[in-house]
């Protein structure tokens, strides 16, 4: 005798299928090429706040790590001549769990060669409105253009604090940001936060004003995505990786190796580009008004 259907699970599957299909349609209509990159990589990213799952062969020898993001390999495709690419994939972060986090989740990343962060911001605005319409969730507050604030403006407006003071202590900066600023961002409609401190540039280039060419979108107090005007200078990127390794060492975190092939491809020439990484589960959660990403996943960790 067949088990009875679970309407909640079937609804999640149907909604996710519409979501993924609409994302693919959006990018295909704009002549992006869908790509795939490996899940097991030689370096999972060096951000001091990320923890990766190590992968070992049956006899115990290390093989690599599960990718926290497909970023390095997708940028290598830009260096190989790809112009507009996107990817929907599973990503893995070992220490992330909560209403807005799962250790395994779905990531959307896309990159444009010969483009700026502004080009990618426009993609993001149009994508969210397009997907909402496909889900029969059209809302005027999602229509572009969205409001923009700099990090400094957001701090001043929501926490009565100045960036140049807080940035001297990164731990204090993030405490104020998470507790006082982020919950108030994008409550009525999505908001784009730009001009992050140069110390938080990661893989973003610096703007003429000395700030990172990085943006994040927040909606209903939740970070939806993190995008860059991409750094293409291999020497500067190596310096940042080495700094990240030093910070991980000081924090007692695992020290992942530098991805030398990624740097080699930067050295050979990556075009000026813009890119973005967007949490697919968070997007669906926000569009449907769910209270957690677990509510829009068929198998969150708690139900495995």
Structure description:
With 304 residues, the protein is an alpha+beta fold. The chain has one domain: BirA Bifunctional Protein, domain 2. It is 37% helix and 20% strand. It has 9 helices and 11 strands. The strands form 2 sheets. An 8-stranded mixed β-sheet has the order 1-5-6-11-10-9-8-7, sandwiched between helices. Strands 2-4-3 form a 3-stranded antiparallel β-sheet, with no helix packed on it. α1 crosses α3 and α4 crosses α6. The relative contact order is 0.17.
Notable features of this structure?
304 residues, alpha+beta, 3-stranded antiparallel beta sheet, 11 strands, 37% helix
User: What shape does the CA trace take?
Assistant: globular
- The neighbouring-strand order within the major sheet is 1-5-6-11-10-9-8-7
Q: Based on the structure given, which CATH architecture is correct? A: 2-Layer Sandwich
Specify the number of helices. 9
pLDDT below 50 for ≥5 consecutive residues: which ranges? none
Instruction: Tell me about the largest β-sheet.
Output: 8 strands, mixed
Total domain units: 1
Q: What is the average per-residue confidence, as pLDDT, rounded to a whole number? A: 96
How far is it from the N-terminal to the C-terminal residue, by CA?
23 Å
The CATH superfamily name is Bira Bifunctional Protein, Domain 2
How does the helix and strand content classify structurally? alpha+beta
Helical residues, percent:
25-40%
Order of helices and strands: HEEEEHEEHEHHHEEEHHEH
- Return Rg in Å: 19 Å
Per the CATH scheme, the topology name is BirA Bifunctional Protein, domain 2
**Number of extended strands:** 11
Strand portion, in percent?
15-25%
In CATH's first tier, which class applies? Alpha Beta
């Amino acid at each position: 005798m067949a088990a009875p259907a679970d309407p909640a699970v079937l609804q999640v599957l149907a909604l996710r299928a519409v979501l993924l299909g609409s994302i693919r349609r959006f990018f295909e209509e704009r002549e992006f090429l869908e790509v795939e990159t490996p899940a097991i990589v030689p370096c999972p990213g060096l951000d001091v706040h990320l923890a990766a799952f190590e992968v070992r062969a049956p006899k115990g020898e290390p093989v690599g790590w599960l990718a926290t993001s497909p970023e390095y390999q997708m940028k290598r495709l830009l260096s190989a001549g790809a112009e507009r690419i996107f990817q929907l994939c599973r990503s893995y972060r070992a220490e992330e769990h909560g209403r807005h986090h799962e250790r395994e989740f779905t990531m959307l990343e896309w990159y444009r060669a010969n483009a700026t962060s502004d080009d990618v911001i426009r993609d993001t605005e149009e994508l969210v409105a397009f997907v909402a319409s496909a889900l029969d969730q059209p809302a005027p507050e999602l229509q572009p253009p969205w409001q923009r604030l700099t990090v400094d403006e957001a701090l001043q407006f929501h926490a009565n604090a100045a960036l140049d003071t807080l940035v001297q202590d990164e731990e204090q900066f993030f405490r104020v940001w998470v507790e006082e600023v982020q919950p108030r961002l994008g409550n009525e409609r999505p908001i784009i936060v730009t001009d992050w401190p140069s110390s938080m540039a990661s893989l973003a280039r610096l703007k003429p004003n000395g700030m990172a060419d990085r943006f994040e979108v927040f909606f209903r107090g939740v970070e939806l995505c993190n995008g860059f005007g991409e750094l293409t200078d291999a020497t500067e990127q190596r310096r940042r990786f080495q700094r990240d390794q030093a910070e991980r060492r000081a924090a007692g975190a695992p020290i992942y190796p530098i991805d030398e092939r990624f740097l080699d491809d930067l050295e050979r020439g990556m075009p000026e580009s813009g890119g973005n990484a967007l949490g697919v589960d968070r997007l669906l959660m926000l569009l449907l008004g769910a209270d957690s990403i677990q509510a829009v996943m068929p198998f969150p960790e708690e139900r495995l």
